[in-house]
Amino acid sequence: MKSDTLPLQLQPKEYKSANKPVWCPGCGDFGVLGSITKALAGLQIQPENAAIISGIGCSSRMPTYLNTYGFHGVHGRALPVATGLKTARPDLTVIATGGDGDGFSIGGNHFLHTCRRNPDITYIVMDNQVYGMTKGQASPTTDPNWQKGKLTPAGTGINPFQPLGIALASGANFIARCSSSDSNGTARILMQAINHPGFSMVQVLSPCITFRPEQREWKNRLIPAPEAMQATRDPAEAARLLLTDEGIYTGILYVGDRPVYQPKLESSITSIEQLEEEFRL
Q1: Which of 88, 114, 202, 261 has minimal Cβ neighbours within 10 Å of its Cβ?
Q2: CATH number 2.40.360.10 given to 12-278
Q3: Domain boundaries defined on the chain
Q4: Which residues pair with 202 in a beta bridge?
Q5: Residues in Cβ contact with 129 at an 8 Å cutoff, skipping those fewer than 6 apart
Q6: Average pLDDT, integer, range 33-60
Q7: Is the separation of the CB atoms in 204 and 186 below 8 Å?
Q8: In 141-158, which positions are buried (b, 16+ CB within 10 angstroms) versus exposed (e)?
Q9: Higher-confidence residue: 274 or 160?
Q10: In whole angstroms, how large is the CA radius of gyration of the chain?
Q11: Residues 32, 123: contact at Cβ < 8 Å?
């Protein structure tokens, strides 16, 4: 291609791989997959310039279905891998994907410290308040009175994890909540999350109709956050919203301006022999 020739415009379908999703029919993650491809197309990010990193769970299959670089990691470890990749390759668009179990249970410590470090990555959490892949156990975000969990038939009896409030307190630089049933709206928010410097946390309420069929009603309960509270830059105002919204407000709920974590890349190693010497016992 000549240097003065503009590249062809990429369409959402060009970001999908040849692998067909194996999610249950009606799973909200189908909508999130569509939103990610629309966001990448909207930003015209070349597939080879994007990397999708995930952990374990239904939603963590996402890299398999995208025509970008991808890494399907171990349970709860998507964020440290994504942080390491962004540190080594700051030129890449790095997106981590996962679910509420993967991100807030075994991955909870990594979640807190990634918010604190504030690397320039986007974290998309598909929250269905249940462990779907392992057949219906309560997750960190499950309501304490939900009595259909395989291991908690009387309910968990403990308060659910509040991911957005904790993200704000820990230092996340962009916080939003979306619905998988609003694919276009979610895509627009993802575009802003990817473009915003620092750690962007996007919670997508993504129903598990197999183990939580009542979640079909989410789309009727969710409402846009009050206009005066959307995209606030005041953490105190955002905290008041997140502590009182009962998880039903959608939109961009906080936009910060903290410095981005990006260490300088410096190395004195110039050969394979020197690298081997570093690991010699």
Answers
A1: 88
A2: no
A3: 12-278
A4: 124, 176
A5: 100, 139, 141, 142, 143, 146, 160, 208, 212, 215
A6: 97
A7: yes
A8: bbeeebeebeebeeebee
A9: 160
A10: 19
A11: no
